[in-house]
Protein 1
Amino acid sequence: MEIERKFLVKYLPENMEKFEQKRISQGYICTNPVVRIRRSNDDYFLTYKSKGLMAREEYEMPLTAEAFEHMLPKIDGILIDKIRYMVPLDEKRVAELDIFQGTLAPLRLVEVEFESIEEANAFVPPAWFGDDVTNSGEYHNSNLSKR
């Protein structure tokens, strides 16, 4: 079960260069249900996600680079390119800050994953987080890929 909240970004945190970053490209073979292919740096994945907003089932399996490239022409919609910064919030949580490239620029979103719905509901976001868009399917990457 994936439990996460998603926010727009009011402003970028300081010292971005010190955070771990991943270069991500992802496309959607299907958006209902969600079936995604993703390249994250040199790792490749096929992911299935169930319906839902804050909480949903997620299954991920590794792919080879060749399998990713083979499926790439089969995606529905645009290929999403983004740079993800892993921003530590505390000893337990990391914010995944996505800065979209290409067609979706200058969009910036940040997600935080939780172990329970109660923990997610109790979360107080830092000042650099903007509007909470967790309950808006508009900001699911699967929907963004249709733009």
Protein 2
Amino acid sequence: MEREQRIQYSLDVIRAGDALLAVTDAYRINYETLGNSEPALHTHIIPRYRTEPDDKRGRVAWLAYDWKTARQFDPVQDGSFVERMRAHLNLELAA
């Protein structure tokens, strides 16, 4: 990616993390940007919560949780979250 594309990508990741902080009760966001095992740059943006068990909250999310057994995204159940994220991101773009 060219420099300007990398800058824009980074700003988009920050915007998504800021939106997560605004629409959830997360107290921090973990970011993990990769591009080595898949041929495309991608970022995992993981909200972290004070309600997480002590033995998991301080650990890297990838090691603390069993992602294979995690609840899958459900458009109906998660629709409200998606709409709140969309609204926050659209508000930020309009500013």
